[in-house]
Amino acid sequence: MAEAVVVVRGGTVLDATGERRADVVVEGQWIVAVEEGVPVPRGATVLDAGGCVVAPGLVDLHCHLRQPGAEGSETIESGARAAALGGYTAVVAMPNTDPPIDSASVVRDVRSLASGVPCHVAVAGAITVGRAGERLAPMAELAELGVRLFTDDGTGVQSASLMRRALLYAGGLGVTLAQHCEEASLAEGGVMHEGAVSSRLGLAGVPALAEELMVVRDLALVRETGARLHFLHLSTAAALDAVARAKGVGLPVTAEVAPHHFTLTDDALLGFDPVFKVSPPLRPEGDVAAVRAALADGTVDAIATDHAPHPPEAKDRPIDEAPPGMVGLETALALAMTELEVPLHRVLALLSWQPAAIAGLAPDHGGPIAPGAAANLCVIDPARPWVVDPAALASRSRNTPYAGRRLSAKVRHTVLAGEPVVVDGQAQR
Ligand code: DOR
Predict the structure, then answer these.
(1) Binning pLDDT at 50, 70 and 90, where does residue 1 land?
(2) 132 and 186 belong to one structural domain
(3) Is the domain of 45 the same as that of 91?
(4) Residue with CA closest to ligand 1 atom 9
(5) What distance in angstroms lies between residue 236's CA and the mean position of ligand 1's atoms?
(6) Ligand 1 pocket, 178 CB below 6 A?
(7) Both 97 and 213 in a single domain?
(8) Using one digit for the tens of pLDDT, what is the confidence trace for 376-396?
(9) How far does residue 61's CA lie from ligand 1's centre (Å)?
(10) Mean pLDDT of the chain, nearest integer
(11) Most exposed among 169, 248, 311, 427, judged by the fewest C-beta atoms under 10 Å?
(12) Number of structural domains, the chain?
């Protein structure tokens, strides 16, 4: 049977190599031509990209797909659909599932659940058994299966000696560790950022210092071990400053931030609404400004969603009992394009090719759009206003902090391995 042909027509192609007007012709799973005004082959599916940017598919380094164990919040399939609608062709699923992804058998289970879903799902393994921070997970066995990123996300590895051993081990295996930076004795019991707003509300706080301390400790461990480390969802000026200095002296570290940390401040908690509760917490204006500056100056390598779905019965509880987390896959790109004062090329570097490289997914994802490359693409309408409606999200959970927010860009089409999985903003499966 002849391979299906898809033509993405009339857009501006934008990838790490630059920008040009071109149609993109896809045959089967591959890009076969990138040229202006190509004749449309008979029987081809044409995706209209008029007025749009055609980019490599986005890559999310950090999402919680909740399977196995919390299918009421999200499944790999519903999360993958939300991701595709958000322009993602690949996401990294965090291991804080039930059971956690700390063994070869759970990796295999998750992969089998992820086969055939409308977004590639890469699996992150846990650093420690059960994410309990006591002994190392069988990282070699997981690396053998192709796991490239390891993290205990949800919590940081508290023991410096265990983290040092994990880094030495990871360095030998050629994999990357990713740390949720929060020193537990300082963060314990905290519901929101510790500062003027938490004092006013009488809520226990998580000090900025909890993040900075672990970042500084881990930078020293990286300096000693030489192993690569990725910092998850950084949220404070002090931590970002430490990372900038470490990068300045050549340490092999990368960092991500989440959209909620450059679009919301801790003032959002003034109404005690648990939808704004997240870990690390929303911070005051000074930290938000530092996150934005770090996105602009290259200290930050990636925007990651930290998509953390929770159902109403869990989230609509008193704020000190509700779990932290917000959904984010369907709004991240639009928030970045609407809110950040950086060129689109930089936004896409942060959302596509830089995270693809960190996750070990390049060049299949995030790679240049050229003949011979894998056809993982997203087509973005940069001038399409829309209003976030929680009821319209494809995610099984509705806990977005952006209900009613006007955004100014939208994904029109997503192509995964040559297949249009989102067409005109509609999921195809
Ligand atoms: O807010 C958060 N929610 N931060 C995390 O690190 C974990 C996540 C979750 O799994 O709900």
Answers:
(1) low
(2) yes
(3) no
(4) 308
(5) 17
(6) no
(7) yes
(8) 999 999 999 999 999 999 999
(9) 14
(10) 98
(11) 248
(12) 2
- The verdict on residue 244 lying in a domain is yes
Q: Is residue 366 part of a domain?
A: no
- Report yes or no: 197 and 313 within 8 Å, Cβ to Cβ: no
Do 312 and 393 belong to one domain?
no
pLDDT, one tens digit per residue, over 89-124 is: 999 999 999 999 999 999 999 999 999 999 999 999
Q: What is the Cα–Cα distance from 252 to 243, expressed in whole angstroms? A: 10
pLDDT tens profile 281-305: 999 999 999 999 999 999 999 999 9
Q: Over 70: is that where the pLDDT of 356 sits?
A: yes
Instruction: Provide the residue type at 398 as one letter.
Output: R
> What is the span of the domain harbouring residue 137?
57-359
Residues with Cβ within 8 Å of 41's Cβ and at least 6 positions away in sequence, in order, are 5, 7, 25
Kindly give, in sequence order, each residue whose CB lies less than 8 Å from that of residue 232, ignoring residues fewer than 6 positions away. 61, 62, 151, 153, 178, 179, 180, 181, 256, 304, 306
Catalytic residue IDs: 306
We report the CATH number of the domain holding residue 403 as 2.30.40.10
180 Cβ below 6 A of ligand 1: yes
For atom 7 of ligand 1, the residue with the nearest CA is 154
128 shares its domain with 258: yes
pLDDT > 70? residue 221: yes
Residue to substitute in 98, 275, 278 for testing ligand 1 pocket (most ligand atoms within 8 angstroms of CB): 278
Residues 202 and 303 both lie in one domain: yes
- Same domain flag for 47 and 65: no
- By percentage, how much of the chain surpasses pLDDT 90? 99
Is 335 in the same domain as 233? yes
Q: Is 325 in the pocket of ligand 1 (CB under 6 A)?
A: yes
